[in-house]
């Protein structure tokens, strides 16, 4: 029991020293945190998002945020637990955004069906939102060019954020930010009901 308490205390001290070094901008502390925890974080995130590529991107974002906000970093307890929580939260946020994007894309797709096709006749999107296509086009037209292209690729062509980033030569985070801003604008313009 004394040995396990000593080990726990040593881990706490090591964790505190790494956090202090990271806050001071020490790249070696960052590299140590990366090497120690990246695989576990990717497993945690993969368990939520079910995609290795997305898990790797989200964990990369966690580390990028960790480095960019290092001067404000406050960790109570073990840094591993802090990073696991940060990664899990990032994964849950991603799932929520993807669910919303999927619902939005399905809504737009249903709006593109011609009347009387037999598909969704009982719940025809034209009946519920007659101006959806026009409002969507108007909202897209109001977006800055880069944001409009990102949103068009995501919502109309169904391309994922990493593929959009590669196609446009920008960071994945930039794509996610543009999608988020575009979604906010579309919500405001279309005043979409809660179910969308």
Structure characterization notes:
The structure is a single chain. The chain is an all-alpha fold and 196 residues long. It has two domains: 2-94, Orthogonal Bundle (Rna Polymerase Sigma Factor, Chain: A); 122-190, Winged helix-like DNA-binding domain superfamily/Winged helix DNA-binding domain (Arc Repressor Mutant, subunit A, Orthogonal Bundle). The protein is 77% helix and 0% strand. The protein has helices spanning 2-23, 27-49, 52-68, 79-112, 125-128, 132-142, 145-156, 161-168, 172-190. Mean pLDDT is 77; it is low at 111-128 and 192-196.
Task: Provide a concise account of the structure shown.
The chain is an all-alpha fold.
* CATH architecture group name of the largest domain: Orthogonal Bundle
**Alpha-carbon Rg, integer:** 22 Å
> Strand-residue fraction?
under 5%
Shape designation: elongated
Number of helices: 9
SSE-based structural type: mainly alpha
CATH topology of the largest domain: Rna Polymerase Sigma Factor, Chain: A
Instruction: Work out the helicity level.
Output: over 70%
- Tell me the name of the CATH class of the largest domain: Mainly Alpha
Low-confidence parts, pLDDT < 50 over ≥5 residues? 111-128, 192-196
Number of strands: 0
Main β sheet profile: none
The overall average pLDDT, rounded, is 77
The CATH superfamily of the largest domain is known as: RNA polymerase sigma factor, region 2, helix turn helix motif
- Give the topology string: H per helix, E per strand: HHHHHHHHH
Number of domains: 2
Distance between the termini: 55 Å
């Amino acid at each position: 029991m004394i040995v396990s308490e000593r080990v726990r205390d040593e881990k706490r001290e090591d964790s505190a020293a790494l956090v202090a070094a990271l806050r001071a901008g020490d790249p070696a502390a960052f590299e140590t945190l990366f090497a120690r925890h990246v695989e576990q974080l990717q497993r945690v995130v993969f368990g939520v998002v079910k995609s290795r590529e997305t898990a790797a991107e989200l964990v990369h974002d966690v580390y990028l945020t960790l480095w960019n906000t290092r001067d404000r970093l406050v960790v109570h307890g073990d840094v591993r637990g802090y990073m696991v929580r940060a990664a899990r939260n990032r994964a849950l946020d991603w799932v929520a955004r993807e669910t919303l994007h999927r619902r939005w894309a399905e809504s737009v797709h249903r709006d593109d069906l011609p009347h009387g096709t037999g598909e969704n006749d009982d719940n025809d999107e034209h009946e519920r939102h007659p101006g959806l296509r026009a409002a969507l086009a108007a909202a897209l037209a109001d977006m800055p060019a880069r944001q409009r292209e990102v949103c068009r690729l995501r919502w109309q062509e169904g391309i994922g954020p990493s593929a959009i980033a590669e196609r446009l030569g920008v960071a994945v985070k930039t794509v996610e930010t543009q999608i988020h801003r575009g979604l906010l604008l579309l919500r405001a313009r279309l005043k979409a009901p809660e179910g969308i």
